Amino acid sequence: MIIRDFNEAKNTERKVADARWNSVRMLLANDGMGFSFHITTIKAGSEHTFHYKNHFESVYCVSGEGSIEDLATGEVHDLRPGVMYALNLHDKHTLRCKTEMVFACCFNPPVTGTEVHQADGSYAAAD
């Protein structure tokens, strides 16, 4: 059984951040679960384009308001607490945060915790 406290993990190397977001990696590849689990906080007024070509991601909105745009179709969907989206087709998307947003995210394959976004908005393929 794995037990982790977010309030402790956010003060360790499990927290990855830049100026507009931070992500606390609660489960990573070395935990052996087959997915990674993150609590991610994104700053109000920020916009992010991602394209996880090598990972599937599901995201549950815990708090805040914003939107996600599917860049293949142009469809825009509102995000608010209780809404989930899943990037089941490695969907290239733009996330826009009206207010600060907190998400619970799962990645498959799991991330190791050291990934950085490449220029195209993806993480490199897992080893």
Short description:
The chain is mainly beta. The protein is built from one helix and ten strands; from the N terminus they run H-E-E-E-E-E-E-E-E-E-E.
Judged by helices, strands and strand pairing, the structural class is mainly beta
Total domain count:
2
Count every beta strand, where a strand is a DSSP E run of 2 or more residues.
10
> How is the main sheet built?
6 strands, antiparallel
- CATH topology name of the largest domain, in short, is Jelly Rolls
Q: Say which CATH homologous superfamily of the largest domain is assigned.
A: Jelly Rolls
Strand content: 35-45%
Percentage of residues in helical conformation: under 10%
Query: What number is the mean pLDDT?
Result: 92
The gyration radius over C-alpha positions equals: 14 Å
General description of the model:
Its EC number is 4.2.1.108. Catalyzes the circularization of gamma-N-acetyl-alpha,gamma-diaminobutyric acid (ADABA) to ectoine (1,4,5,6-tetrahydro-2-methyl-4-pyrimidine carboxylic acid), which is an excellent osmoprotectant. The chain has 127 residues and is mainly beta. The protein folds into two domains: 1-42, no CATH class; 44-102, Jelly Rolls, CATH 2.60.120. The chain contains one helix and ten strands; from the N terminus they run H-E-E-E-E-E-E-E-E-E-E. The strands form two sheets. A six-stranded antiparallel β-sheet has the order 1-2-3-10-5-8, with no helix packed on it. Strands 4-9-6-7 form a four-stranded antiparallel β-sheet, with no helix packed on it. The longest helix has 4 residues, at 6-9. It is globular.
